[in-house]
Amino acid sequence: MPESKNYTFDYIELATMMVQKLGLHEGLWGVYFEFGLQGANVPTSPDGKNFVPAAISMVKSVGIQKFDAPNNLTVNAAEVNPKKDAKPLTKR
């Protein structure tokens, strides 16, 4: 099997890792991304003489934020990172 050069994570996996890394034990937390936007003139011909104005967007940072209600971006910190002395949550 060849060595993997890329690993991908979905939103829930990212939120879980960040909640655990930050030591959060309660609340609904979900991922968020901060984007930047920059303009530039981009060459469009092989000789570099023709340009078009273009917008370039970039991911500036990735983080988590607290949510009031669960959604497809959130995890419950009490479930994915329970306190060591806490009893496991039971499903209702």
Would you write up a description of this structure?
- The structure is a single chain.
- The protein is α+β, with helices and mostly antiparallel strands and 92 residues long.
- The protein has one domain (11-80).
- Helix content is 17%, strand content 39%.
- The protein has helices at residues 11-22, 77-80; strands spanning 28-43, 51-67, 74-76.
- The chain is elongated.
Largest sheet: 3 strands, antiparallel
Question: Radius of gyration from the CA trace?
Answer: 21 Å
Give the helix level as a range of percent. 10-25%
Low-confidence stretches: none
Widest sheet: strand order?
A: 2-1-3
Percent strand = 35-45%
Q: Which whole number gives the mean pLDDT?
A: 93
Q: Given the C-alpha coordinates, what overall shape results?
A: elongated
Number of strands: 3
Element order, helices and strands? HEEEH
Distance between the termini: 43 Å
Give the helix tally.
2
Structural category is alpha+beta
What's the structural domain tally?
1
Summarize the structure.
With 92 residues, the protein is α+β, with helices and mostly antiparallel strands. It has one domain (11-80). Helices cover 17% and strands 39% of the residues.
